[in-house]
Amino acid sequence: MKTSRTIHTADGSTVTIRRRGIEFDLETRNARGETISTVVMTADDVNALLVETYKELAA
User: Residues 14, 6: contact at Cβ < 8 Å?
Assistant: First the structure.
């Protein structure tokens, strides 16, 4: 991932993931643009999150 990716949710919130060196930042913002949380994740953490998300979607 060379750039950040932002997903806009139905309630106007956003979730952004961006690479920061060897780690990733996962940032959530509410509809007013206020940061709710920022989580620093390793590539393995991001992969595990995506795998679990895909499993949940397939269920």
Answer: yes
pTM for the full predicted model? 0.82
Instruction: Tell me the two tokens of residue 30.
Output: 């509410």
Q: Write the pLDDT tens digit of every residue in 28-52.
A: 999 999 999 999 999 999 999 999 9
- Calculated CA dihedral for residues 46, 19, 2, 7, nearest 10 degrees: 70
Q: In the chain, where are the structural domains located?
A: 5-58
Nearest to 50 by CA among 13, 36, 22, 42: 42
- Taking the C-alpha atoms of residue 41 and residue 1, their distance in angstroms, rounded to an integer, is 14
